[in-house]
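Reminder to self: tokens first, then the designed residues, so the page reads top to bottom the way the pipeline ran.
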């Protein structure tokens, strides 16, 4: 009888622990979604910036009038934020990209003191070698937007200084990226921030 009671007690405790883990995971997901709403979606889509981060990133009022329906997309990675700069001598170029899963959000703003050529594009993980899909291309001194990755892969920019003076490109981002990739002078520098298993993949 004592053994049966002990087993029942352990079973009950395991059930409680399992429920506690589910509740904790739900709370974490709600907190992340709330942070995305307050820090990025409200400033960019609705011109409401209670924390001041939207103005600091240059995304406040980004889309003009907000849509009538607000949609929150759940994210399965951590939220990261960074600021990086690249000095480009005349006729130098650099590529800088983020690894994003399909549906992952990225808010960015970049600027430079003199006009540069730029291209914002993505390379899908399941695409043929060398394939890239271009999202925007042109010349300018900056750009800012809220971007949602249409596919899993690396997404980012190519900047080229076609002028006679050195320039510095400054990029500020916040989003659910898991790695950064810098391509310059024939070298690739990858920094992995977080290991992620895609929904259709199963860990061994």
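Designed residues (204 positions):
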């Amino acid at each position: 009888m004592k053994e049966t009671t002990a087993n029942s007690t352990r079973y009950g405790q395991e059930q409680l622990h399992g429920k506690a883990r589910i509740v904790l995971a739900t709370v974490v997901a709600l907190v992340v979604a709330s942070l995305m709403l307050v820090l990025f979606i409200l400033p960019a889509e609705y011109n409401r910036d209670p924390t001041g981060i939207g103005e600091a990133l240059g995304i406040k009022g980004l889309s003009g009038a907000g849509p009538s329906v607000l949609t929150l997309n759940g994210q399965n990675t951590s939220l990261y934020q960074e600021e990086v700069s690249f000095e480009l001598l005349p006729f130098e170029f650099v590529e800088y990209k983020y690894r994003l899963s399909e549906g992952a959000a990225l808010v960015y703003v970049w600027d430079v003191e003199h006009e540069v050529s730029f291209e914002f594009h993505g390379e899908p993980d399941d695409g043929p070698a060398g394939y890239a899909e271009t999202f925007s291309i042109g010349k300018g001194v900056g750009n800012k937007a809220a971007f949602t990755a249409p596919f899993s892969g690396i997404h980012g920019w190519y900047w080229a200084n076609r002028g006679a003076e050195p320039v510095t490109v400054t990029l500020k981002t916040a989003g659910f990226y898991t790695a950064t990739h810098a391509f310059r002078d024939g070298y690739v520098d990858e920094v992995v921030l977080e290991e992620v298993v895609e929904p259709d993949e199963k860990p061994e």
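The longest helix spans residues 2-46.
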